[in-house]
Design brief:
- Keywords: Membrane, Transmembrane, Transmembrane helix.
- InterPro entries: DUF7953.
- The protein has about 220 residues and is α+β, with helices and mostly antiparallel strands.
- The chain contains five helices and nine strands, in the order H-E-E-E-E-E-E-E-E-E-H-H-H-H.
- The protein has two domains: about 5-25 and about 160-215; about 30-155, Immunoglobulin-like.
- The strands form two sheets. Strands 1, 4, 5, 8 and 9 form a five-stranded antiparallel beta sheet that branches.
- Helix 1 packs antiparallel against helix 3 (about 155-205).
- The two termini are about 35 Å apart.
- The structure holds 2-acetamido-2-deoxy-beta-D-glucopyranose (NAG) (3 copies).
Length: about 220
């Protein structure tokens, strides 16, 4: 049967709604991955070695060495699927202390920049964050999931409006789905009732041998 049983439909819809509301209003994403979309370094700090070893590090995590970043004033573009991606993860709104560094063979590693890296930095619509430091580097990070960590909590400003917009679209889609589901259930009930009536009529027809069939069907009054 193509039409789902009413009881099954209800069981299916309830968790769907729970999921939508949960995602919308708690705004909690367990794991938002941050990847490096592009980087350009404007200088190297090490003058003994020809090629620098540049890496990204968040406090308490492991180094991510960029094997390709070897020249200054060269633009490196990444698709996010490189073996060393993602750079890090955000599991809450909490910031991390992260930075770009260059390995140094003699003294401690050189610092391009070190800063408080926060999920709320990713404010551009597609979850982008550009960090630029003059004469040091220009890097673009991507974290689309970071928008859902921070977006719903802050419903003011342009970013908030966007989050609101998404919420409205999701809610409306949910409503349309619900109406469709109710429609299917009602149609199914109606169809079952109609079928039962037809069965009854057919049943009666078997016994009343043609005599009063027209009366039973109510056709007599029409003709
Ligand atoms: C860091 O690297 C070590 C050794 O490669 C590994 O055992 C550990 O799980 C890594 N830690 C994280 C947070 O990835
Ligand atoms: C980020 O989370 C993913 C999935 O849980 C995991 O595979 C990856 O190693 C994590 N990366 C870092 C840098 O912690
Ligand atoms: C940094 O890189 C981004 C992405 O390529 C670019 O849009 C932006 O203009 C750059 N900024 C500077 C100051 O070079």
């Amino acid at each position: 049967m193509l039409v789902p049983h009413p009881r099954n439909s209800r069981v299916f819809i309830a968790p769907l709604f729970f999921c939508i509301f949960h995602t919308l209003f708690t705004g909690s994403v367990l794991c938002a991955e941050v990847s490096l979309s592009s980087i350009e370094i404007f200088k190297t700090h090490e003058w003994l070695k020809v090629t620098p070893t540049v890496y990204f590090l968040c406090k308490g995590e492991n180094k991510t060495v960029f094997p390709d970043v070897k020249k200054s004033h060269a633009f490196y573009d990444f698709n996010g699927q490189e073996s060393w991606q993602p750079l890090t993860n955000f599991s809450s709104k909490k910031c991390k202390r992260c930075g770009f560094y260059e390995e140094d063979s003699i003294k401690s590693d050189d610092v391009f920049d070190e800063w408080e890296f926060c999920p709320s930095d990713f404010t551009i619509s597609n979850g982008e964050y550009i960090r630029f430091r003059e004469n040091e580097f220009n890097a673009t990070f991507l974290c689309p999931e970071c928008l859902s960590i921070c977006g719903v909590a802050n419903l003011s400003g342009e970013h908030g409006k966007k989050a609101m917009h998404v919420a409205v679209v999701v809610l409306l889609s949910g409503l349309v789905l619900a109406i469709l589901a109710v429609g299917v259930i009602v149609a199914n009930k109606f169809w079952q009732k109609k079928r039962r009536e037809q069965d009854q009529v057919r049943f009666l027809k078997l016994f009343e041998d043609g005599d009063d069939v027209e009366d039973e069907l109510g056709l007599g009054t029409v003709i």
